[in-house]
């Protein structure tokens, strides 16, 4: 999954710095013994608990790392032992966030119906638009359906969002039956040949039985290929109870966590959601439609700890500039040809790669905090101005 983010402002970056500082103690220690390992694990556990990760999960992680290190440390040199401990920490942190379940992958050339569910105020409607924009940029035919007939303003908000990203929208402001609106909208866009049909539903709480029943009825009527649960990270570990209630009602296929840019409880939300066995597919990191970052547990942890993720970086670059365009460019360059058209394609490719802080976080040794959010936005605006001039 190629990604977009404003990673540099994430509060979780503080967690990454604390864990990295703990691992750096390995380099300064002349002898790595039980006392050094205990000190490092204590620092890591304290960092996780300060990010609101469940204490039982933290204790389990500590025990698993200890067991892995004991198993592999026999006859290992100090250098090897450092690598063994680092690998064990990365592996266990990744396992904490990964339920081991593959998320739904939409198929090109056919309708893929995606239904959004979540608590009211979780940022669900905005996230619908972010996901629509994500697929639109990747060349899919995308449409939005508003089946939220409960919240005043939901219809107007989604219609305006759809207009901003220039995709079709279906809704009926006078119709109070969400099942009918959802069915009519999905049917309309299937007949029109759309590939990604995103259905927004009313925000709910696990105590609201009537709204939960409405959600079940909508799901039964439109038979979505994927149900995405949107969760606000600010409630931390409480995510677990809410996610479990939704999972029992409609078989949640995947999760998007929002508002990770402003809360210290992000670690608790991430670990609590993973415990429900629903894979996290994206994390929302800001208000803009491109502030949506694809989530892969191991990549997330490696970048959080400044270890980079080169395979993912290559994927992002490959997605940003189509292969046929790359081949054509190389042929022209070999003949000494470089036109304004080539310049425009290269600049567009830089924009398609996403935020530079996210790209920097994929290079080992560099952090996402290297480029501030303000400078990053300023650079993107400059590139857009150059593109307008080249048009």
Task: Using the CA coordinates, give the radius of gyration.
Answer: 23 Å
The number of helices is: 16
User: What structural class results from the helix and strand content?
Assistant: alpha/beta
Per DSSP E runs of 2 or more residues, the count of β-strands stands at 8
Dominant shape: flat
Helix content: 40-55%
Biggest beta-sheet profile: 8 strands, mixed
In round numbers, the mean pLDDT is: 80
Low-pLDDT residue intervals, each spanning 5 or more residues: 1-11
Textual characterization of the structure:
This protein is α/β, with parallel strands linked by helices and 391 residues long. It has helices at residues 12-28, 34-50, 55-72, 78-97, 124-137, 154-165, 178-191, 209-222, 239-250, 266-274, 297-304, 310-320, 323-334, 340-352, 356-361, 373-390; strands at 112-118, 142-146, 169-170, 196-200, 226-232, 254-258, 280-284, 292-294. The chain has an eight-stranded mixed beta sheet with strand order 3-2-4-1-5-6-7-8, with helices on both faces. Helix 1 (12-28) packs antiparallel against helix 2 (34-50) and helix 4 crosses helix 11 (297-304). The longest helix is centred in the N-terminal third of the chain and has 20 residues, at 78-97.
Q: What is the gist of this entry?
A:
By secondary structure, this protein is an alpha/beta fold.
Which characteristics define this entry?
391 residues, alpha/beta, 8 strands
Strand and helix map with partners:
Blueprint: H1 12-28, H2 34-50, H3 55-72, H4 78-97, E1 112-118, H5 124-137, E2 142-146, H6 154-165, E3 169-170, H7 178-191, E4 196-200, H8 209-222, E5 226-232, H9 239-250, E6 254-258, H10 266-274, E7 280-284, E8 292-294, H11 297-304, H12 310-320, H13 323-334, H14 340-352, H15 356-361, H16 373-390
Parallel strand pairs: 1-4, 1-5, 2-3, 2-4, 5-6, 6-7
Antiparallel strand pairs: 7-8
